[in-house]
Write a structure and sequence with these properties.
This protein has about 190 residues and is an alpha/beta fold. The protein has one domain (about 1-190): P-loop containing nucleotide triphosphate hydrolases (Rossmann fold), CATH 3.40.50.300. It contains 8 helices and 5 strands, in the order βαβααβααβααβα. It has helices spanning about 15-25, 35-45, 55-75, 90-100, 105-115, 130-140, 145-165, 175-190, and strands spanning about 1-5, 30, 80-85, 125-130, 170. It has a 5-stranded parallel sheet, sandwiched between helices.
């Protein structure tokens, strides 16, 4: 099973994933961007305010492809539970936003690049916070973490949730981290039948 944790910056994804690592010690916990050299290239691009958004998309895509090849598919084939902090939906929402005005229907384009070869998640936990909350929590540490940008990204996540309501589980992440973690753990217990 592949479970992904998604949401705008400042929604608490990393905090939730750290807690899940304790609850599911046998699971493979991972994240995108990865720690590979592809992921390092992504991080350099994120830190560059004027990076070309199309080039950035393909850096993220290369990192995702390597992640699938190196870790996700082998772990799933070995029968392991995989939990990823961010995955392809982040690309659809974030790069779908950064490519606005560069390409017609950018989110559809990003999805079309991935669909022939990516592995869809079995379940996606969506941590939902208003853009102002996400921006305040993340303190604008990079070019994506500003309220206006996060508003557009959140709108794209809403499009994804509407298109696949059976895959996504929305969790109100405006509450305390302990409440959010408890909600996520309960939803996973129900879904996994544990």
């Amino acid at each position: 099973m592949l479970i992904t944790v998604e949401g705008i910056d400042g929604s608490g994804k990393s905090t939730v994933c750290e807690a899940l690592e304790e609850v599911y010690p046998e699971a493979v916990l991972t994240r995108e961007p990865t720690t590979s050299w592809y992921g390092q290239a992504v991080r350099r691009s994120i830190a560059t305010p004027d990076a070309d958004p199309l080039a950035e998309l393909f850096l993220y895509t290369a990192d995702h492809a390597d992640h699938l090849h190196r870790l996700i598919r082998p772990s799933l084939e070995a029968g392991k539970l995989v939990i990823s902090d961010r995955y392809s939906d982040s690309r659809y929402a974030y790069q779908g936003t950064t490519l606005e005005g560069v390409l017609p229907e950018p989110m559809s384009f990003v999805r079309s690049v991935h669909e022939p070869w990516t592995r869809e998640p079995d379940l996606t936990i969506y941590l939902d916070v208003p853009p102002a909350v996400g921006a305040a929590r993340s303190e604008g540490a990079n070019k994506f973490e500003h309220k206006s940008h996060l508003r557009a990204v959140r709108d794209r996540y809403e499009t994804l949730l509407a298109a696949e309501p059976d895959r996504f589980v929305r969790v109100d992440a405006t509450r305390s981290s302990s409440s959010v973690i408890t909600s996520v753990e309960r939803r996973l217990e129900e879904w996994l039948g544990t």
